[in-house]
Structure formats: C-alpha cells, structure tokens
Description:
5-stranded parallel β-sheet, 6 helices, 5 strands, globular
Amino acid sequence: MSDVKVGIVMGSDSDWPLVKKACETLDKFGVGYETRVISAHRTPDVALDYAKTAESRGLKVVIAAAGGAAHLGGVLAAGTVLPVIGIPVAGGALNGLDALYATVQMPSGVPVATVACGSAGPVNAALLAVQILGTADEGLREKFHAHKDELRRKVAAADDRIHE
C-alpha cells in the first residue's frame, strides 16, 4: 500500500504556484500526496480515469484546483466515492468568481467541498484533507490538535503585542 493519501489535481500548470501551498501544508503534516495536471475540458477521459482509479490506487481524498469554468472538481467527484475538495482559482475576466460559482454549485448527489479563492484556498484544502484523514488516524489527529494550539498561541501573542 502506498503512503500517498491525497491526490492533488490542477487544471493547468499555471495553477502550480498556488497549488504548491497545499503541498507544503501536507508536507508539514507528513501526508503523502501526488500531483497531476488534468483538464476537465481538454482531457476529460484522463480526468474520469483518474477519478475512477483513485480509490484502488490508495488515495483517500482528492483536491481539485481550477479556474474559469472550474468543472474539474465536479468531474472528479462524478467519478469517485472519495471526498473531493475544490479550490476555485482566481483569475480571468471575473477574477475567480466564475470558478467559485462553478465549484460551489454542484448538483445534489455530487458534493465538492469548497475552500476560499486566493492563497488561503490551497492551505485550507490541505488542512481539510488532513482533518478527513485524521478521522481514521489518531497520530494525524494529534498533529492537527497541535496545529490548532499553535494558531491559538499566535492569536494570544498578537493580542499581547497590541497591549504593550
């Protein structure tokens, strides 16, 4: 069995600088992942094959980053029973609003969890993947507890700084 648990798919290699933040976040938690560039519109057969084989290849969660029409998350979700997390990528004429709408407006029965546009999106997608994996992995869950404790410490330190 592979140690790769998360599949990260982006619609274009231009999404890589943003998507790399998800990889860095998963690295911090020691979660194995794979990355692919697959277009829902230009290579739909590849997208469906990826989705259909994800479970048998040992993946537990799929992250899909796409801009514009942003159908990648939905196409992947249509082909797998695994949780899919969509990252709407900002850009284009509508600055990501179209990607956001496409990602959040999935039809009943084909869920895609959606995170923020912008730099928070990939980080939150990775964190959500860690939380999902943590439901069956106590060690990972403990790492997430430590992460939350660190967030609390940073806020407390910021509060202290403004009162100095």
